[in-house]
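Q: Could you write out the predicted structure for this multi-component system? I'm mainly interested in how the pieces pack against one another.
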Amino acid sequence: MKTLINFENVSRWYGEVIALNDISINIPPGVTGLLGPNGAGKSTFLNLVTGRLNPSKGKVTVLGENPRNNFKLARFYGFVPEQDAYYEKLSGLDFMTYMAQLHGFERKAAKRASMEILERHNLLTHMNKPVAAYSKGMRQRIKLAQALIHDPEILYLDEPMNGMDPIGRNETIDLVKKLSSAGKTIIVSSHILHEVEAMTQQIILMHNGKILAEGIVQEIRGLIDEYPHNVIIHTDRAREMASQLLNYDDVIDINIEDKQNRLKVQSKEPEKFYQNLVATIVENGYNVTYIDSPDDNLQSVFKYLVK
Amino acid sequence: MPIFEQTYRKWEGTLKTTGIRWLPITKMGIKQTFKKKRFLLFFIGCQIPFLVFAIRLIIGALVPENIENAPEFLKITPSFFAHFLWIQSSFIFIMTIWSGANLINGDYQSNALQLYLSKPLTQLDYILGKLSIVAFFNLTITVVPAILLFILRALIKYENSWFVQNLWVIPAILGLSLAISVIHSLFILCLSAITTNSRFSTIAYFIILFFTDGIADLLHSLRRVHSLLNISISNDLFSLFQIFFGKHAAKIPGYSEKMADPYYGAAILIVLCVLCYFVIKRRVGRIEVIQ
Amino acid sequence: MLEAVRLSYKKQLSISVVIFRMTVKNIIKTRRTLFMFLISASTLLVALLYLVLRESDNMGISGYAFFAYIMGTLQIRGILLLLSVFYGSTVFSDELDRKTLVYLQSRPVSGWSLLLAKYFSSFAITAVLLVFSTTAPYLVLMAADNPADIIKNLDILGIDLLVMLLGAAAYNALMLMASILLKKPVLWGLTFTLLWENTVVNIPALINKFTLLHWLQSIFPHPAATNEFLSLLNPKPSSIQTSITMLLILTMIFLLVSGFAYRRKEFKLN
């Protein structure tokens, strides 16, 4: 698989504090969620890939080049910072035109491109207002717009949906998916797990400067043996099904709630369990009205690994 | 062993309102400022004149009075303390900027002003809290070492007559130090409230203090009228020395150059302080209205 | 892939011009610039006051002498320093304070292009204000004696403007360097210019050459103001050619240090 961003034994410390501890990772094309609690090292990670920081040890490469003091690389990436940063006196259009001109656009082309992208982000009607007068959500959208104006290969999004309303969030998620299918590489750093999950299943989970897990959410979940998989099943013959399921060696525990016709099954091998469950249901003709795995998600992965 | 429920518990004590509501603002501001290492070094550096004057005082106190032609600088008269405060007032400029230039505009930038004003604090409390941070630092380099010098003199060579004759120096030191500290503090806070840019408040402070000096000198050179020297804020501040120390201020080196009218100067400073206070109040008050 | 990106010098120059224009536009629009304009206009104000008082009193000082006095006191030791310290530090520090440096750094703009654009924008604003504060009182005060003196003393005005421009160039470069290296560039800048420069320039021997003011005063056609005590020290000026060369070299050095410091420094996001 093509690697666009590569970290090779990268460490970074500030005085005695280790922000990143011997990280080695290749980030492939597509959307990657960068997750972790505060102080995990996400900001340091983004500072390194954008060349704002030098690694204390190891090597960072983006498109095969060292990003530090490499202004040419900026042609290929767009960055949405977390901070609320803007030029108070500039209007939305002036700000976008300026950003486009800094990419080498001629003034007229910059203005045209700015208007197009402002329209795409529903900011055209506000383009002559100063950015300082925009709402938080609008400022977030214009930050995204400035990162996309030059059609970059790579996008770094640091908390891109901060302050956005639900419509804005959905639009951003759709945009990220669209960009990803167009072949862009996107790294999204966020705390909002369900939104990251909506954008991608490919995650990097960080904690205390280390990478705890990397890959698809379900695969990671399956590997967390310490916490067996929970499955909730609603069926009219709960006790009967329970006795059948107990025959399987991957099932560790079953909790029966007769009154709700509910089973809570704990399995250490979820894939095997689902296969067996389907076979059991079909063979015995059970009437199953509900099946769910409440901890087969990013939130649980996060909770279990970052405890 | 009792088992405690790990949930939120309502505070069952009584909430006491202290007489000085703004004191937490002051304490926090002082604590934050002292955390900066460079400031700490500067603060220690500001005490060097105290050491020099203390040595001069000790030598002066030990020289017998009946020695003829004893050097003037060894005589510990009220002008000794006025001179010390004059030296320290030159450190006040940098102390004021360091501790005060970012006090209010920093709150603008971080939107902390709404946090302050959403507590049971009035605008006056906020202003007093901020003002007292700068005033504290200015007073620690003026009134504290000056009073210590006075006490040192009394301890080294206690003479009832000297002590009684010069007891007025203590309120003079207190009054002068307080006046200078409050004026500088109000001034920098006003500039800090006017702009969100601490660099501009620093430059404006310097310009208004030193530039007006240059303008006053230029105009005085055109027309030898003493009241023109009152255009200079520095000269007006010097006039406070004349008010509090009277004829003893004349012995401060450089005095002859600064002979602006003292009461006119004091009046200008009072007007300036009142203006600064109203500007700060207005600017702080504007934040409460969401535009 | 990156080899295909040809960021020509011409393109970098055009981007620098964009940054220059935007920086100047952002600075001019502020109330701070109005305040600085009023400071620069103080020389004109004083000159006009001279005119008014001259009518009523028998002034012992000619317009030319008063112009020389204004230049030696207010201009070279006040306005030049204050404007340079402020604008020289503002152009870069503003980007840091507003956190908008991240936008400039995530664009294909070289550090040198960025810094030179910032430098020239602060130099341009300082220069315009200084030209105004030098020329306006000159016209008023020369005309007060004899309008023909305006043309007669044009060479003096020319030298004054050269000194102001060289001073603006050097001090702005120094302040740009300070704003990259130091946390409180204005405070250090004021301490350096108002304390070090104004004091050490009066000390004879080699030490006074460690001030920019020495080289400026060596070219300056008017006597610089100083107090009676310091004037006894009577430091000797350097030659005009040496002074101009030194000022240009020092400007270059400050700019080079700024560039290298910018490349080494890590402006991280918090």
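A: Regarding packing and overall arrangement: Residues 23-287 of chain B form one domain.
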